Amino acid sequence: MTERALAIDTEALDRIGLEVDMRLTDVWAMLFERGDDVDTEFLGWLLRLAYVTGYWDALSEPDRGSLCHRLGYPVPERRSEPQPTPLAGAAAAD
Fold first, then answer.
1. pTM for the complete prediction?
2. Residue numbers of the domain that contains 44
3. pLDDT tens-digit readout, 3-22
């Protein structure tokens, strides 16, 4: 287990799970509408949608880390320098 995972107590994990499930109701609905007809491409699309939803929620918080504080999750430190994305690195190499 990572240090970050060890820093979260079981009750906080339950609260985080509930919060995430509530934020992803549209994603869950799309998944269950497909039933057994879920292929890897569709699943990948849903995972990307869930991931970007998390970013959207984090960027739209009124105060940085307010969701983490409310759920008992440690607020991560900001990186000192922006990390290059794989896409940006590939474009620079061209």
1. 0.55
2. 3-73
3. 666 666 777 778 878 888 88
